[in-house]
Amino acid sequence: MRFWRFLKTDELDQKRFKKIVKEVEKKIDCTKCGNCCKEMSPVLTLEDIERISKKLKISKGDFLKKYTERNEDKDIVFKLPCPFLQNNKCSIYEIRPKECKEFPHLDKDISFRCHQFFSNAEICPIVFNVLENAKEEFLEDIYDFENPEV
Average pLDDT in the 49-67 region? Predict the structure, then answer.
Protein backbone atom coordinates (compact mmCIF):
# COMPACT_ATOMS: atom_id res chain seq x y z
CA MET A 1 0.00 0.00 0.00
CA ARG A 2 2.91 2.35 0.65
CA PHE A 3 4.09 1.88 -2.90
CA TRP A 4 0.55 2.45 -4.24
CA ARG A 5 0.18 5.68 -2.25
CA PHE A 6 3.60 6.85 -3.40
CA LEU A 7 2.75 6.23 -7.07
CA LYS A 8 -0.41 8.31 -6.74
CA THR A 9 1.55 11.41 -5.69
CA ASP A 10 3.69 13.83 -7.60
CA GLU A 11 6.70 12.47 -5.66
CA LEU A 12 7.36 9.88 -8.38
CA ASP A 13 10.35 10.92 -10.50
CA GLN A 14 8.92 10.40 -13.98
CA LYS A 15 12.35 10.48 -15.62
CA ARG A 16 13.62 7.63 -13.44
CA PHE A 17 10.38 5.74 -13.95
CA LYS A 18 10.60 6.05 -17.75
CA LYS A 19 14.18 4.76 -17.59
CA ILE A 20 12.92 1.63 -15.81
CA VAL A 21 10.22 1.18 -18.45
CA LYS A 22 12.77 1.36 -21.29
CA GLU A 23 15.10 -1.11 -19.57
CA VAL A 24 12.32 -3.65 -18.98
CA GLU A 25 10.84 -3.26 -22.47
CA LYS A 26 14.24 -4.08 -23.99
CA LYS A 27 14.40 -7.36 -22.07
CA ILE A 28 10.92 -8.78 -22.69
CA ASP A 29 9.64 -9.95 -26.07
CA CYS A 30 5.86 -9.57 -26.25
CA THR A 31 5.63 -12.28 -28.92
CA LYS A 32 6.80 -14.85 -26.36
CA CYS A 33 3.76 -14.03 -24.21
CA GLY A 34 0.64 -12.74 -25.93
CA ASN A 35 -1.28 -12.58 -22.64
CA CYS A 36 -2.82 -9.22 -23.50
CA CYS A 37 -4.39 -10.71 -26.63
CA LYS A 38 -5.53 -13.81 -24.76
CA GLU A 39 -6.92 -12.10 -21.64
CA MET A 40 -7.97 -8.59 -22.65
CA SER A 41 -10.11 -7.22 -25.40
CA PRO A 42 -9.68 -3.68 -26.70
CA VAL A 43 -12.65 -1.38 -27.08
CA LEU A 44 -12.88 -0.77 -30.80
CA THR A 45 -13.45 2.71 -32.16
CA LEU A 46 -15.44 3.34 -35.33
CA GLU A 47 -12.12 4.21 -36.98
CA ASP A 48 -10.66 0.85 -35.91
CA ILE A 49 -13.65 -1.01 -37.34
CA GLU A 50 -13.57 0.87 -40.63
CA ARG A 51 -9.79 0.54 -41.07
CA ILE A 52 -9.62 -3.17 -40.23
CA SER A 53 -12.70 -4.24 -42.20
CA LYS A 54 -11.46 -2.29 -45.22
CA LYS A 55 -8.03 -3.94 -45.03
CA LEU A 56 -9.65 -7.38 -44.65
CA LYS A 57 -11.90 -6.54 -47.61
CA ILE A 58 -15.11 -7.39 -45.79
CA SER A 59 -18.11 -5.27 -44.88
CA LYS A 60 -18.25 -3.65 -41.46
CA GLY A 61 -21.30 -5.79 -40.69
CA ASP A 62 -19.48 -9.02 -41.54
CA PHE A 63 -16.46 -7.89 -39.55
CA LEU A 64 -18.63 -7.16 -36.51
CA LYS A 65 -20.45 -10.52 -36.72
CA LYS A 66 -17.32 -12.59 -37.22
CA TYR A 67 -14.79 -10.97 -34.87
CA THR A 68 -16.55 -8.89 -32.24
CA GLU A 69 -19.03 -8.89 -29.39
CA ARG A 70 -20.37 -6.41 -26.85
CA ASN A 71 -18.83 -6.26 -23.40
CA GLU A 72 -20.71 -5.54 -20.15
CA ASP A 73 -20.51 -1.80 -20.89
CA LYS A 74 -22.00 -2.41 -24.35
CA ASP A 75 -18.72 -1.45 -26.05
CA ILE A 76 -17.66 -3.31 -29.18
CA VAL A 77 -14.66 -5.55 -28.42
CA PHE A 78 -12.84 -8.47 -30.04
CA LYS A 79 -13.92 -11.95 -29.06
CA LEU A 80 -11.35 -13.66 -26.83
CA PRO A 81 -8.77 -14.78 -27.44
CA CYS A 82 -8.18 -12.14 -30.08
CA PRO A 83 -9.10 -13.67 -33.43
CA PHE A 84 -6.05 -12.04 -34.97
CA LEU A 85 -3.51 -13.62 -32.61
CA GLN A 86 -1.50 -16.23 -34.49
CA ASN A 87 1.54 -17.85 -32.85
CA ASN A 88 1.59 -15.00 -30.29
CA LYS A 89 1.83 -12.44 -33.08
CA CYS A 90 -0.77 -10.01 -34.35
CA SER A 91 -1.81 -10.80 -37.90
CA ILE A 92 -3.14 -7.23 -38.30
CA TYR A 93 -0.28 -5.53 -36.45
CA GLU A 94 0.06 -2.61 -38.89
CA ILE A 95 -3.65 -1.77 -38.59
CA ARG A 96 -4.31 -2.98 -35.03
CA PRO A 97 -6.76 -1.03 -32.84
CA LYS A 98 -5.69 2.13 -31.06
CA GLU A 99 -5.97 0.48 -27.63
CA CYS A 100 -3.65 -2.32 -28.75
CA LYS A 101 -1.06 0.20 -29.96
CA GLU A 102 -1.11 1.97 -26.61
CA PHE A 103 -1.01 -1.11 -24.36
CA PRO A 104 0.44 -1.44 -21.73
CA HIS A 105 0.10 2.34 -21.37
CA LEU A 106 3.50 2.80 -19.74
CA ASP A 107 4.08 6.07 -21.55
CA LYS A 108 1.26 7.73 -19.60
CA ASP A 109 1.38 9.20 -16.10
CA ILE A 110 0.53 6.32 -13.79
CA SER A 111 -0.34 8.48 -10.80
CA PHE A 112 -3.90 8.79 -12.16
CA ARG A 113 -4.12 5.19 -13.36
CA CYS A 114 -2.77 3.08 -10.49
CA HIS A 115 -5.69 0.66 -10.41
CA GLN A 116 -5.41 -0.08 -14.14
CA PHE A 117 -1.63 -0.26 -13.87
CA PHE A 118 -1.73 -2.85 -11.09
CA SER A 119 -4.43 -4.83 -12.92
CA ASN A 120 -2.28 -4.88 -16.05
CA ALA A 121 0.59 -6.31 -13.99
CA GLU A 122 -1.49 -9.47 -13.53
CA ILE A 123 -1.46 -9.99 -17.30
CA CYS A 124 1.63 -8.30 -18.70
CA PRO A 125 5.16 -9.32 -17.66
CA ILE A 126 6.46 -5.93 -18.75
CA VAL A 127 4.14 -4.08 -16.36
CA PHE A 128 4.86 -6.58 -13.58
CA ASN A 129 8.62 -6.16 -13.94
CA VAL A 130 8.37 -2.37 -14.20
CA LEU A 131 6.48 -2.38 -10.89
CA GLU A 132 8.99 -4.69 -9.23
CA ASN A 133 11.96 -2.66 -10.47
CA ALA A 134 10.27 0.61 -9.49
CA LYS A 135 9.67 -0.64 -5.95
CA GLU A 136 13.37 -1.34 -5.63
CA GLU A 137 14.47 1.88 -7.36
CA PHE A 138 12.20 4.10 -5.27
CA LEU A 139 12.46 2.25 -1.96
CA GLU A 140 14.13 5.12 -0.11
CA ASP A 141 11.74 7.65 -1.62
CA ILE A 142 8.76 5.52 -0.57
CA TYR A 143 10.09 5.24 2.96
CA ASP A 144 10.77 9.01 3.15
CA PHE A 145 7.30 9.73 1.76
CA GLU A 146 5.63 7.59 4.44
CA ASN A 147 7.90 8.85 7.27
CA PRO A 148 8.73 12.50 6.48
CA GLU A 149 9.95 13.42 9.97
CA VAL A 150 12.57 10.64 10.14
Answer: 98
What is the C-alpha end-to-end distance of the chain, expressed in Å? 19
3-state secondary structure of 86: strand
- Give the CA distances from residue 89 to residues 14, 26, 67, 82, 133, in Å, rounded to whole numbers and listed in that order: 31, 18, 17, 10, 27
User: CB-side exposure of 101: number of CA atoms within 13 Å?
Assistant: 10
Bridge-partner residues for 89, per DSSP?
A: 86
Tell me how far apart the alpha carbons of residues 79 and 77 are, in angstroms, rounded to a whole number.
6
User: Is 0.90 topped by the overall pTM?
Assistant: no
CA–CA distance, 136 with 132 (Å, rounded to integer): 7
Identify the three-state secondary structure at position 42. coil
pLDDT at 57: 98
Residue-level pLDDT at 148: 67
Nearest to 82 by CA among 54, 31, 40, 126: 40
The answer to whether the beta carbons of residues 50 and 76 sit under 8 Å apart is no
Q: What is the mean pLDDT of residues 93-109?
A: 93
pLDDT over threshold 60, residue 150: no
